[in-house]
Every structure is written in C-alpha cells, then in structure tokens.
Amino acid sequence: MTISETPSKASSQEAPSAVPVTVLGLGNMGRALAGAFLSAGYATTLWNRTPGRGDDLVARGAVHAPSAADAVRASALTVVSLVDYDAAEAVLAPLAEAGAFEGGRVLVNLTSDTPERSRSAAEWAAEHGIAYLDGSVMVPTTVVGGPEALIFYSGDREAFERYEGTLRALGARATFLDEDPGLAAVYDLAMLDFFYTAMSGLIHAFALAGADGVKAAALAPHLDTISAILPPLAGAMAAHVDAGEYPGDLGNLAMETAGIDHILHMSRSRGLDVTVLEAVRAIAGRALEKGHGGDDWSRTVEEIRP
Ligand SMILES: NC(=O)c1ccc[n+]([C@@H]2O[C@H](COP(=O)([O-])OP(=O)(O)OC[C@H]3O[C@@H](n4cnc5c(N)ncnc54)[C@H](OP(=O)(O)O)[C@@H]3O)[C@@H](O)[C@H]2O)c1
C-alpha cells in the first residue's frame, strides 16, 4: 500500500511520510513490521539486542541506531516486537528511566503476552508519562503490511487516532478495540485458543487417516468442507453463548457425542493418542449427564466455565 492510498481519517491529520518510526526487535515479526513501514515510505530506525539483524532493511533505506535509546529518540512512534513481556520490560525500563520517550513520543507494544502483562505495562507507561498502545498481530509475517493484515490495538485511544494512518502501513485492518489496554491480548489469546485446538484436531485427523494408509495430502483437499462450516457456525454459536440459550434444532450433543465415540473407538484400536479427544468427550459427557443431549454443542460452554 502506498501512503496516498492509506484509507484513514488520521492520514488527513498527519503527513505520514513525515512521521519517522522506530522498530525495536528484529526477529521474524519485527523485520516484517519494519519492512512494511519501509514499503509505505516511512523513515524507519531499527534496533535489535543482537547486532547484525535487519541488514536487508538497511539496504532498503532503514537506519540502524547505535542504542535502543537513540532509536526511540529518532522517531515520534516506536513499535516494539520482542519475544515476550520479560524481554520488553528489559528493553523498555531503562529507556523510560533515561527519558527517551519524552516529548510526547508514542509507544506501541506489539509483543504478545497475557492481558495482565499488557495492563501492567500500560500502568508502567502511565507512571512514566508515555502514551501507550498495546497490540496483537493476528497474521503471519508474510501477511503483515497487506490489506488482510489484522492487528488489534487497545489502550490510548488518542494515540491510536493520531497515528492510525501510520499503523495502517503495518496492516490495513488496524482495529482499535478499547481503552482497556488488556483487550488486544484478550482477543489475541481467544483467537489463538481456537487456532491451536483446531491445529490439534487437524493433526489428529491426519494421524487417524494415516493409520489406515491414507496420506495426509489425500485428505487435505477435502478439509475445506469442514473449514467452510466454521464461519456461519461461529456466528450462530456466538449468538447462543451470548444469549445463554442453546437450541439443538440442526444438530445436538447426543448425536455429536456418538460421533466422537466412533472417532475414539477407531483411534484407540489403532493405538493413537486420544488425550485431546478424551478431554472433548469428557466436557460433552458432563452436559449429557445433566440432560442436555438435545441442545446444541454451544451448551458445552457451561461446562468449561468455572
Ligand atoms: N512470527 C510470527 O508469525 C508472529 C505472528 C504473530 C505475532 N507474533 C508475535 O511477535 C512477537 C515477536 O515474534 P518473532 O516471531 O519476531 O520472534 P523471534 O523471531 O523469536 O524474535 C524474538 C525477538 O525478541 C528479542 N529478544 C528476545 N529476548 C530478548 C531480551 N531478553 N532482550 C531483548 N531482546 C530480546 C530477539 O532479539 P535477539 O535477536 O537479540 O535474540 C528478537 O528480536 C512475539 O510476541 C510473537 O508472539 C509473531
């Protein structure tokens, strides 16, 4: 995306090419973020704990700062992408003590961790007078900077609105959630909860088919049938969960639990690990024992909650 195409009300308030930006952390994600800034024409300063990373970005016009403090002072906006919040704190604490963020500089922390860590980081930033946005990158590095790149933000609304055009260089789907700085992490972990349990199911399916000689590649083309069911299902089940009503008009727990039992039976007879399936069966089983066999699968949310 070029700057002139940036679809943002903020782009009319700021002159994006005049906003210098800094990226702290040049791992896989940090390099992708810095590359997206460069592609959109932003003057980009880089810093990484271990020297020697991001030389390709320097070849494209980025500048390596000699220290993290120099990097922060070079820009109005600093984006941080480190492995976790322990690393972020180790890098950021001395910078705040040195006053590197003075002058209204904005800190955008795109490091992933828990909501608690995000909220305490925001408190720390407030104590030091730093405008703080927390964020979660919801796409792989190859998608960063593109029209499909979803990045959640929460925290300082004014900072987001001021730099929305700049942040859209990292992902056109820059989404501000709330002033609660923990919410980007809540959305992140909820979506990753779905992702990792789905990945576990996918790999188990390959193992199950493989136990009877079916190559994963033979099964894979047909799995889009299952993935295509999920978007409408997510909307319908979300409505059930929010309403606390679980009508099993189209499919019900009793039928679906019988289906799980078939998968368990086949898996056990092939000697496959059934840890995850047994956990799924146990949750559904508790709902069945309470007489909810005619309800939709969404009823199981009641068995997950404390
Ligand atoms: N990669 C993805 O597809 C992806 C997708 C969505 C979100 N994310 C999130 O993006 C963040 C960065 O991920 P990544 O893939 O870039 O990880 P990565 O490639 O492993 O890079 C980790 C970065 O953290 C730095 N680091 C680690 N410990 C440090 C410390 N104690 N002090 C200073 N720097 C430290 C590393 O610096 P050195 O080079 O000095 O080791 C490196 O810059 C994570 O929170 C991740 O969850 C990643």
Set out the fold topology.
Blueprint: H1 9-13, E1 21-24, H2 28-39, E2 44-47, H3 55-59, E3 63-64, H4 68-73, E4 77-80, H5 85-97, E5 106-109, H6 115-127, E6 131-137, E7 150-155, H7 157-167, E8 173-178, H8 183-211, H9 216-219, H10 224-243, H11 253-269, H12 275-289, H13 301-304
Parallel strand pairs: 1-2, 1-4, 2-3, 4-5, 5-6, 7-8
Antiparallel strand pairs: 6-7
This protein binds NADP nicotinamide-adenine-dinucleotide phosphate.
Features:
306 residues; alpha/beta; Rossmann fold; N-(1-d-carboxylethyl)-l-norvaline Dehydrogenase, domain 2; 2 domains; eight-stranded mixed sheet; 8 strands; 50% helix; elongated; disordered N terminus; binds NADP nicotinamide-adenine-dinucleotide phosphate
Short description:
With 306 residues, the chain is α/β, with parallel strands linked by helices.
